[in-house]
Design brief:
Blueprint lengths: L1 E8 L9 H15 L7 E8 L9 H11 L5 E4 L2 H4 L3 H13 L3 E4 L9 H34 L12 E11 L2 E10 L1 H17 L2 H10 L12 H8 L9 H10 L2 E2 L12 E4 L2 E4 L2 E4 L6 E4 L8 H20 L14 E3 L6 E4 L13 E4 L1 H5 L10 E2 H14 L6 H14 L3 H4 L1 H25 L4 H29 L9 H17 L5 H11 E6 L4 E5 L1
Parallel strand pairs: 1-2, 1-3, 3-4, 7-11, 12-16
Antiparallel strand pairs: 5-6, 8-11, 9-10, 13-14, 14-15, 16-17
Helix pairs in contact: 4-5, 9-10, 13-17, 15-16, 17-18
């Protein structure tokens, strides 16, 4: 019999219901209250640093997969909200557990889902958990509005043209902390002013990118400018003056304006909070209704009238701008996977409509846009005839399926090695990573204990020895993981991935002649990682 324990905490704080404490309490409960516990195998799943707003948590998903295999008799957690705070997610979970005859135990609320009253109480607790999550979100937003009214900079990467400057100290939760405001960096601001002025003249993002490439002007982080980077600057309210036109523009968008209309005198710039939301480290643009727009303590560089005009230009040109990234050529098969040796994606370009191949297809070539934009100064790789390259790459991919091909032998050898290897060894990199993270976490906890110690030398020495031991163990595990990653003749992934790749190669051979161009393109993207053109040869990299 298997008993699963699940623990979760949104972030590590060094106090309260840590995942370690949750697991310890669950183990004690199991030993005291479940009769079959002595013969049972206890499996622990822990997600630290993940919110309960949804189920997009790695260990939770892994646990649910194991439960659906029928390998679990009991699911135990410290509190119901450790599983989640969304009533729909909790309802689905309970339904799944009931269908699989898995008993659910929450040691704090003492739920028993095998009875109707227990199930009803669980749903009711789920409603309360969701309500608590919504209240937390509301409090966070209220605090953000309060901070917005003060025009403070809340941290993070400062926009181009600004630096964060410490202001007066503020009292937060009984502690003195510095508050920050934005101050102008005159050198960087020259670039920002150029971007706004040039866009109003040209109304072309790519034109500004081309100019920056030709003059070797880089971003704040030393990267090449892209159209996305230019657009982000042009749409950032931080550069807009807090004047009457700006007030009306953001009011009409439906934003929450944290200043009175008479305060919009144009003396300072704007700050927008909650413009994006973070979802697993990826910023996603929020709807304007969620934006909190406030008057900052920094000067704006463009009037509200000009700013709104630029937003209208961007909106009008957005369809054209977005389509630039899509494959417009109806023949090119390597769009999106063909790279120039300088590192940039190559794009197809038609020849004259009178130039066609023997099959009647219009001729085209692949060219490097970086070379085009810099007039050959930054890249000199020659264009390549597209119809010919597509045919050669497809022919090579088809050759991979032949029994005497090198890739065919490599894939089969890898599959045979995996067949002769225990399942645990195939996925042992995951287990090693888990052990490495556990030791890192233990070291962090010990450092926190050390910081709070009273200075007793013997106690400090013991803690330091434990830290050294954990770091030594972690180093051994990291070395073993690195050596394991080099196995397999550069074949990445597990048996399922190899089987999938072999299946795609086989399907491509059988279906190739019957596929349309878009279908061939999709198949190639499933098989190939990329193709690199160096001016003389094309180098093919499979996934």
């Amino acid at each position: 019999m298997n008993i699963f324990i699940y623990s979760r905490k949104s972030k590590w704080t060094g106090r309260g219901e840590s995942v370690e404490n949750q697991i310890a309490m669950c183990r004690d409960y199991i030993q005291s209250n479940i009769e079959e516990a002595r013969q049972a195998k206890i499996v622990v799943f822990e997600d630290e640093g993940y919110s309960g707003k949804n189920t997009d948590r790695p260990q939770f998903q892994k646990m649910m997969q194991e439960i659906k295999k029928g390998d679990c008799s009991y699911l135990v957690c410290y509190k119901l909200d450790r599983l989640g705070r969304n009533i729909a997610d909790l309802a689905n979970l309970v339904e799944t557990l009931n269908k699989l005859n898995v008993s659910f135990i929450s040691i704090k609320e003492r739920f028993d889902t095998s009875t109707p009253i227990g199930k009803a109480m669980l749903y009711f607790a789920g409603v309360l958990a969701q309500m608590e999550r919504e209240q937390i979100a509301e409090r966070v937003r209220d605090n953000m509005i309060m901070l917005a009214r003060k025009g403070r900079w809340l941290g993070g990467n400062t926009p181009l043209g600004f630096r964060a400057e410490a202001e007066e100290k503020v009292m937060i939760n009984g502690r003195n902390k510095k508050s920050f405001r934005l101050a102008v960096d005159e050198e960087e601001m020259k670039t920002v002013r150029f971007i706004f002025e040039e866009y109003q003249k040209q109304q072309s993002l790519i034109g500004i990118v081309r100019y920056f490439l030709n003059h070797d002007i880089k971003t704040k982080r030393g990267n090449e400018y892209t159209t996305t980077a230019i657009r982000d600057i042009l749409t950032n309210p931080v550069y807009c003056r807090a004047d009457q036109e700006a007030y009306q523009y953001f009011w009409n968008l439906g934003c929450q304006i944290c200043m009175d209309e008479e305060e919009a005198d144009g003396m300072y710039g704007l700050i927008a909070y909650a413009k994006t939301s973070s979802s697993q480290y990826k910023n996603k643009e929020n709807a304007p209704e969620k934006w909190i727009v406030a008057k900052g303590k920094h000067p704006g560089i463009i009037s509200g009238k000009e700013f709104s005009k630029i937003q209208n230009y961007l909106a009008r040109n957005s369809a054209k701008g977005e389509s630039w990234h899509k494959s417009q050529n109806k023949i090119a098969l390597l769009s999106g996977i063909l790279h120039c040796s300088c590192g940039h994606l190559m794009r197809p370009k038609y020849y004259s409509s009178k130039q066609v191949t023997e099959q009647g297809e219009r001729k085209f070539s692949y060219l490097c846009p970086y070379k085009d934009m810099t007039h050959g100064e930054k890249c000199s790789v020659p264009n390549v005839q597209g119809n010919t390259l597509d045919e050669l790459v497809c022919r090579e991919v088809l050759r991979y399926t032949e029994e005497n091909s090198n890739i065919h032998h490599i894939l089969h050898e890898a599959m045979e090695r995996m067949e002769d290897t225990k399942e645990e060894k195939v996925t042992s990199a995951d287990l090693l990573e888990q052990e490495i993270q556990k030791r890192k976490k233990e070291v962090q906890n010990l450092i926190a204990v050390l910081a709070k110690s009273g200075g007793e030398q013997e106690f400090i020495s013991q803690i330091e020895q434990k830290i050294l031991k954990l770091n030594s163990e972690r180093a051994v595990l990291e070395k073993e993981r690195a050596e394991m990653g080099a196995e397999g003749i550069n074949i990445q992934g597990d048996r399922a991935q190899l089987a999938f790749l072999m299946e795609q190669l086989s399907s491509f051979e059988k279906l190739f002649d019957t596929l349309s161009v878009p279908e061939k393109r999709e198949y190639l993207r499933m098989i190939l990682d990329k193709v690199v053109w160096d001016g003389e040869e094309a180098h093919i990299f499979i996934l």
